[in-house]
Design goal:
Layout (H helix, E strand, L loop, with lengths): L20 H12 L3 E5 L6 H14 L3 E6 L8 H17 L12 H12 L5 E6 L6 H16 L6 E8 L2 H7 L10 E3 L5 H15 L5 H11 L3 H15 L9 H13 L4 H11 L2 H9 L11 H8 L4 E3 L2 E3 L3 H10 L22 E2 L2 E2 L1 H15 L13 H17 L2 E5 L7 E7 L2 E9 L3 H17 L4 E8 L9 E6 L2 E9 L15
Parallel strand pairs: 1-4, 1-5, 2-3, 3-4, 12-13, 13-15
Antiparallel strand pairs: 6-7, 8-9, 10-11, 11-12, 14-15
Length: about 500
């Protein structure tokens, strides 16, 4: 029986695999046209699997596809690089019964090597992965070599050449004389929803274990088809959460899986994303919690770096985190340490049963309690010290978590589309609740948030939701609670005042 692959490239004979025929056709067309082109994809996006599927097709067409990687070569000297390149090429060609005894010491030796290999085979397709790790000392000479070979094809059979990596590859090839045209760039996108359905469908057909349609929706919504994450979620669901194939995979199992990935999973994709994001912490907090959209441009060094590593992307012309699971994990990763605020949440007279009604949560009582807490604590409720952006989110998140944990429920951060928008999804004894949080900027933005929440409630098949808005423009003279029906959904709006006066830091003079 095949498995969901969570490490290395997929082998269709061993792993459930999305075959990506359309992308294979595009790659084959570029090869047949003799193009020298670049391939772009964020890290862990399925590039190596794609190459292997493409190579199977090319081998059937009579090509000799060769794959090497420059990963880890960045610090090599010029001599060490050519010595390593000799070994890589000799090993790959030997797999096809092609033996070249030449030893590379410079770029001219590379041309001679490929000429000798050409005498023993048909058209060669060379793919160089992780090209951005090429040592700077050999970049220009290697690009000039490729240019010379492109112009003198009569002396060799290098039919096509592809340089593969993240977005910095385009910058590298443009900064040196080369035959590469940025138009000839093949992008490896994440799985579409249909491809995720196909992947899971292969498993269901082989094992007979069913996946609820809402589970498949949730997998795609949280991963946006990122191949590594999609397979990792599926693998955990069927091997750890529901290993009995006679039982269906349900949303209960999915929520437990999501909790695992958000709090305790050492997944290489997620860990890499968190590490890269931490290097741009202040910028990431603006993306996660800021109210002002950040235009997407790779001329912004922070944007370029995070984009190259798959943390952010261009979403409608603005910087955004396209994969909700990443955004949720980043919110958790940037959560400030416990600062003792929880001791102010309740008094000695509080009894938690008052927050339960008819077997469900009394969120009105909890949010009323939060409003009272904010009034008592003032600016201290948001004084996280480590954070400027996002302090309001962490205040509510910490408060809600405190109560829901003690009542035996679970809280999940949700990151639906919308600048400055963060939702809390609460699960309690088969009941589901949504709290959307925003900062008040103006009436249009405020009203739009209600419509967004109504749409989200429709998606979650809920009849009512809670809208918590932090405002330093309202006062006690304004209406601070609204109960409205919008698009057939009941919306409870709580405005939380934040226009507190900070105490003076000056020491009082002692009375004389």
């Amino acid at each position: 029986m095949r498995i969901f692959n969570t490490s290395g490239p997929c082998d269709p004979d061993k792993h459930y695999t999305v075959m990506r025929e359309g992308l294979i056709d595009q790659g084959q067309a570029l090869v047949e046209q003799g193009r020298y082109f670049t391939i772009f994809a964020p890290r862990q996006a399925g590039k190596t699997t794609y190459f292997q599927l493409l190579f199977r097709r090319l081998e059937m067409q009579g090509y000799t596809p060769i794959w090497i990687s420059f990963e880890g070569l960045h610090t090599l000297s010029r001599a060490e690089f050519y010595q390593t390149l000799t070994v890589y090429l000799q090993d790959e060609f030997a797999a096809y019964g092609i033996h070249v005894d030449a030893v590379l010491t410079n770029q001219f030796d590379l041309q001679l090597f490929l000429r000798q290999a050409s005498a023993q085979t048909q058209a060669i397709v060379l793919v160089i992965d992780e090209f951005e790790n090429i040592p700077a000392v050999v970049l220009d000479e290697l690009m000039h070599t490729f240019r010379a070979m492109y112009q003198k094809r009569q002396y060799h059979k290098l039919q096509a050449l592809s340089l593969v990596g993240v977005s910095t590859v385009a910058e590298l090839v443009l900064s040196s004389a080369s035959p590469f045209n940025v138009v000839d760039e093949l992008r490896i996108p994440y799985f579409t929803f249909a491809e995720v359905q196909d992947l899971i469908g292969q498993y269901v057909a082989e094992t007979g274990q069913s996946f609820g349609s809402t589970v498949i929706d949730a997998i795609y919504e949280n991963t946006q088809g990122q191949p590594g994450l999609t397979c990792a979620l599926c693998h955990y669901l069927v091997t750890t959460m529901v290993p009995d194939h006679s039982q269906p995979v349900t949303m209960d199992a999915f929520y437990l899986t999501l909790h695992h990935f958000l709090t305790e999973r050492f997944d290489k994709n997620i860990v890499n994303i968190v590490q890269k994001a931490r290097e741009k912490r202040e910028f990431m907090l603006r993306i996660l919690f800021g109210n002002t959209p950040i235009p997407f441009t790779v001329d912004n060094l922070d944007v370029a770096y995070l984009y190259a590593h798959g943390v952010v992307d261009n979403v409608g012309g603005y910087v955004d985190i396209p994969i909700p699971l990443y955004a949720k994990r980043l919110i958790n990763a940037f959560r400030p340490p416990i600062n003792g605020e929880s001791e102010y949440y309740v008094s000695a007279q509080d009894t938690f049963p008052e927050y339960i009604v008819d077997g469900g949560l009394n969120l009105h009582a909890i949010l009323g309690k939060y409003r009272d807490y904010i009034r008592r604590r003032g600016f201290r409720a948001f004084d996280t010290k480590q954070l400027k952006e996002g302090a309001w989110h962490y205040s509510l998140d910490g408060f809600i978590n405190f109560f829901i944990e003690r009542l035996g429920g679970d809280t999940f951060v949700e990151t639906p589309s919308g600048i400055g928008r963060t939702d809390l999804l609460i699960l309690y004894h088969q009941h589901k609740y949504i709290i959307e949080t925003k900062i008040f900027t103006d009436q249009a933005y405020f009203q739009n948030g209600k419509a967004q929440l109504a749409d989200y409630l429709t998606t979650e098949k809920l009849t009512e939701g809670y809208y918590v808005v932090f405002s330093n423009k309202h006062t006690d003279a304004d209406t601070l609670y609204f109960d409205e029906t919008i698009n057939n959904k009941r919306i409870h709006t709580y405005i939380i005042l934040t226009n507190f006066e900070r105490p003076s830091r000056r020491r009082r003079k002692s009375a004389s």
